[in-house]
Amino acid sequence: MWGGNYFADLFPASRGWLYWDKKMGGDFSDGELAYTSIDMVLRSFSYCNKEHGKVHPTQKPVPLMRWCLGLVPEAATVLDPFMGSGTTLVAAKLEGRQAVGIEVNEAYCEAAANRLSQGTLF
Q1: Which residue segments constitute the domains of the chain, with CATH numbers given?
Q2: Residue 10 near residue 19 (C-beta atoms within 8 A)
């Protein structure tokens, strides 16, 4: 769960945190933490999302989500209950996995559908 550090007292103890170094500096956060229940040491991923178009305010980069999918065993279907612009679904598609996304905002659903139909995905 991205932003899990804000809710760490609500989750069971875990050493399996993920850290995304955004390489942005300035007025934005240097990085973002994600809580996992996976028993592993902290993992870090560095990637700057500045050069790529964003559709959603909390959009994660596709390479980050592909990296995350590589940390978990292959499942029959990947579920993203807060799909946003569809980054997790794009990553799943690129990894050859089936995925289902749920999003209440129609504009984000359309953006995700457009991203999934493109030959080049950001």
Answers
A1: 1-48 (no CATH), 53-122 (3.40.50.150)
A2: no
